[in-house]
Amino acid sequence: MIAPAADPGTGTYPATGAYPVTGADDLDLAVRLLAATPTHEGRDPALLRRWAEAADAFGAALEPGPCHARIVERDDGLDELLLARYTSRPATVEICTDTVDRAEQLIDELGWRSWYPVGSVRAAALAHETAHEHFHHKRTRTALKEAIGHTALRLGRFRVLAHVAGAEEIAAHAYARAVCGLGRSPLLLTAALAAAVGAPGREN
Q1: Using 50, 70 and 90 to split pLDDT, how confident is the model at 176?
Q2: What's the pTM value of the predicted model, to 2 decimals?
Q3: Number of H helices and number of E strands within the chain?
Q4: Nearest-CA neighbor of 199 among 26, 110, 77, 107?
């Protein structure tokens, strides 16, 4: 879990100047994430909005469940703006405590505590990576594709659904928002954190 506007293919996030958050609602931020994702250049903004809405709704409706991965803590994520990271082999969630602490501080600085209660940054980061754990299962990935409905190929009444880059990230943020009962998406907080710290980051 890190600053938005990522290339999900490489896990690389650009510098933050092109990703303003002032006045943007959660769906606006999700649309901007898709628009900044390679493969979506030039796509109709209305189409991106429909995809963002579908991914957000899918993530918010995912059945809550425990994280089955091993959880470890590290204190060197702030330079990369890394809050948490999921790796599948072995299944592990890394929580970056220095970035979590900076995000908690930023919430107080911005007066956002009503949206993000004390301790919610770590909880949301863990929930976000738990959602990514779900997406390592083909059934969940397929269900998301069906919810978005982007067609890669159609042969008569048969069609092949396409992967939408960035959709899993939006769904993971929505899952974390719903599971943790947040007033706003973690996507807003990660964008604000990126603007405050001013460095690119990575996520897997």
Answers
A1: very high
A2: 0.84
A3: 7, 5
A4: 77
Q: Is 96 helix (H, G, I), strand (E, B) or coil?
A: strand
The string of pLDDT tens digits covering residues 116-132 is 999 999 999 999 999 99
Q: How far is CA 57 from CA 53, 119, 136, 177, 200, in A?
A: 6, 25, 19, 11, 28
Q: Which among 165, 141, 4 is positioned nearest to 62, based on CA atoms? A: 141
**What does the pLDDT look like over 82-101, one tens digit per residue?**
999 999 889 999 999 999 99
Tokens of 91: 């299944």
The answer for residues whose C-beta is within 8 angstroms of residue 71's C-beta and 6 or more apart is 92, 93, 95, 126
Overall size of the chain counted in residues = 204
- For residues 165-174, one letter each, b for 16 or more C-beta atoms within 10 angstroms of the residue's C-beta and e for the rest, the string is bbbbbbbbbb
